[in-house]
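Consider the following assembly input.
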Amino acid sequence: MKNVYLDYSATTPVKEQVVNEMIPYFTEYFGNPSSLYTPGLEAKEGLITARNRVAELINSRPEEIYFTSCGTESDNWVLEAVAEALENKGNHIITSKIEHHAILHTCQHLEKFGFEVTYLDVDSEGFVRPEELESAIKDTTILVSIMMVNNEIGTIQPIKELAKIAHNQGILFHTDAVQAIGNMPVDVKDLDVDFMSMSAHKIYGPKGVGALYKRRGIQIPSFIHGGAQEKKKRAGTENTAGIVGFGKASELARMNLHSHMNHSSKIRNMMWERIEKEIPDIILNGPKDFSKRHPGNLNIAISYIEGESVLLMLDFNGICVSTGSACSSETLGTSHVLNAIGVPVTKANGAIRITVGDNTTEEDVDYVVDNLKQVVAKLRELSPVNGEKGW
Amino acid sequence: MKNVYLDYSATTPVKEQVVNEMIPYFTEYFGNPSSLYTPGLEAKEGLITARNRVAELINSRPEEIYFTSCGTESDNWVLEAVAEALENKGNHIITSKIEHHAILHTCQHLEKFGFEVTYLDVDSEGFVRPEELESAIKDTTILVSIMMVNNEIGTIQPIKELAKIAHNQGILFHTDAVQAIGNMPVDVKDLDVDFMSMSAHKIYGPKGVGALYKRRGIQIPSFIHGGAQEKKKRAGTENTAGIVGFGKASELARMNLHSHMNHSSKIRNMMWERIEKEIPDIILNGPKDFSKRHPGNLNIAISYIEGESVLLMLDFNGICVSTGSACSSETLGTSHVLNAIGVPVTKANGAIRITVGDNTTEEDVDYVVDNLKQVVAKLRELSPVNGEKGW
Amino acid sequence: MALYNNTVMEHFMNPRNVGEIENPDGKGIYGSPVCGDMMQITLSVDENEIITDAKFKTFGCGSAIASSSMATELIKGMSVEKALELSNDKIVEELGGLPAVKIHCSVLAEHAIKNAIYDYAQTHGRKYAGLEGYNPDAEHHDDCEGSEEGGCQGCGNGK
Amino acid sequence: MALYNNTVMEHFMNPRNVGEIENPDGKGIYGSPVCGDMMQITLSVDENEIITDAKFKTFGCGSAIASSSMATELIKGMSVEKALELSNDKIVEELGGLPAVKIHCSVLAEHAIKNAIYDYAQTHGRKYAGLEGYNPDAEHHDDCEGSEEGGCQGCGNGK
Ligand SMILES: Cc1ncc(COP(=O)(O)O)c(C=O)c1O
Ligand SMILES: Cc1ncc(COP(=O)(O)O)c(C=O)c1O
């Protein structure tokens, strides 16, 4: 049976070159990077190389990169730390309705402690309207956090413009770029953001490693307290092998950026062309202008049927997609993102997300669309709802 | 040149069997464990096995294990979460003066927010006196956190007794067991603790993976907010390969516990016997009764010379030890642990820690002691201080 | 490891009794697409009150479809009286188990059958102890909106 | 990668001028074991005020020992006047660099030499512009207790 993985936005396989660079750090260069003897210094050297490589990917200085355990931790850190540091200045944070749960749930946590959060609406394609950000800013606003690329519908926000609006009022700006790095050019100097979250496992690196870019000169407290690692900003013995893997993945992402983007968007476009033509009663969620969309992302609401059954039947044929409806297998309820862009619940229940990546081939497109057509037809036959009945 | 690594308490090499179980999770079972299709479920199965194995090592239920990014995170989580959850009940936390910085610095962080922390004194061998804990408890006490085994001097605390004292007053009890698991029998049911911190890289597993044991039925808030991973208690895509490695390392630690303990203590004892006999003007820091000491730990204050130069000269000959004086290469100042047990600063400056482990051999003992003797002699010759001058 | 066991997967991939009986003796609908699952059951019942045929149409996840398939299999050939006693536990048991978060799918099937029998009883003037006080419209929305398990959960792209 | 470069390591592993001159013309001690480093310098100075010999004893980390070794090498053969101009920067430069947190070790060497010359000046009735206002006991404790960089840092077992 063919195996066609189409969920690169959920996670990516680790590239062989990346694994190969990691392995010696388990067994050979296993020292604690804080140790002063040779095996410790060897491990530390691995961290230095990795930091340089991540920095190069986003055009920052190496010392502006702080390694964390995941994108989620980076998001938590920024929000909690800015809240702690600027409490005396104000208690208001601005974000959007379509952020990742790592942002939204941390905001909800802060709300319990007296912070006020404005969740900006987005338009029908998921774009934050700059003028809405502008008018949401108050005297008490201490941070704006808007994601660079949405993980469900692929919307690429006008981060440079949004950061400028915040900075014009002297407000710090954070962006969650977990879905962005490696999938579009990201230059923190040009974007002029203060903080940026990243994660290795979305760019063919290992899971359990992330980073926070913090602009030089800005002081924020630690989130995880303890030893002096990461310039005393993130305690805990460093995940050396993981960080080395993140570094290598970043280097590859930088070198392959344009071929990766071209390849992904080409395959994605082929797939969408066939799907649009051959499967009736579907809607594309997210930007119609593909230049403003994650290069590998499709999010399709399929009328009359439910997403998980599509996912399962495709899985039976070796095809991996995710539903557009829930946060994870442990959570229920429909997608807050589809909800925010105005997709009715009934349609959101039938949404699937397809994200292509480096291993997706043109042949896969045919296999996937042929299968999807069959699955959709079969499930629609099973379904008590249809167009005539008004749904 | 020989390579003799003697810093197993800083970190351990990852065992080959552990690495071998991890690798497929980078490339083959790379799915996101939250995904419902086959590659996701395969990854999830890896987590389940790992959880079972960690649970077995400490005699807990699997559902009482929450994976984190390191021992430090586990420590931070417990302290911050109990503080948040029980704020209305009280603001007082009891810990000891010789805890790891992951505990001490988190306590200091809480103090900034109105919490009161009692740092218990320890005796000259590093033991917390149960009666002091008892009398430190107040109406406002919400948590007691005492480490099971000290990382510098190897002291094994009477955790069962200390936990009982806390529980008699209805107070939650946490223990940092990062140095304990794998090095002594640890049974959370028998010890009757509520929370316990662990880390993989001290038991021949990978760096960047830890766990928190949380007794069933106790509710604490999340520390890292976001997705629904770890029963909604610890967000962030799981470090699948790392967790699988922690699981395998735990299984090996459980199976090898007695041979590991016997081997370590035998080598450690041989080393101490020769050092004590052959190197004048040294002091053993920590418990003299080796049954109350980490089986691989020696901590020796060498008069008249400074620890780092000992470390460096030994490193030149392929021997890795750590100094007893500072927290990490990025921090200065003498050890808070040696200070707490009353070692004068002058002697603490000349302390080194030797920790032996599974790869240390009897031949290594001779190589190390021969070298150490020479290094000590050479540095003492260089030194302007000596016994006659009163130091 | 799989999300569902082989029996569930077999009923999901090859569901029995799919469709809609023309001029059914009883027809029941339960759930709604808003909640993420919806089932329609149609029945043929003979003069001895035996269910001679049952068909379903289901909008929902894998376990909802498998539960419908299994439930219709179980009630075919049963007396209406017996069919009213069919519990969701029995459906789960016959399926060899469902994940905890999916148990509500079997409840859905139980309710859809009850609703179909209620319709049969109404249109055929029958009374059954098992239907006493039963309100076909009552409960689903509570299930859906009230509880956390209110919808068929999907596999997330919240990642 | 190493903690120290080859020159530093060479001076650490094979330090020049170790020891204590008997009946020195000048002797200086700087630092204290409490602070983690302490240096003793002894000098022989001839009638032309040229330093003909210099020896050291140092308690301290690798860079403290290397700095002492390099510093004594540098002043041997120098006039006292010139030796007073020896800055810690020069010592660091000759060592090919020290890690930032270790720069204070070179300062220590500079001070120890100054102290030895001060002693020579006192006992031999000499005056030097470079010693004007110099207090041999003044500064070290400030360095040690006041600043974060007050001691030779060790490699931790706080792990
Ligand atoms: C006693 C103790 N607690 C906590 C930690 C922190 O563990 P980790 O390095 O996994 O953060 C360590 C070791 O570094 C330790 O020895
Ligand atoms: C936009 C976005 N932010 C944050 C995260 C969290 O990253 P991680 O899984 O590394 O915690 C993800 C993916 O899971 C994401 O897509």
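Chain D is about 40% helix and 15% strand. Ask yourself how this observation constrains the way the partners meet.
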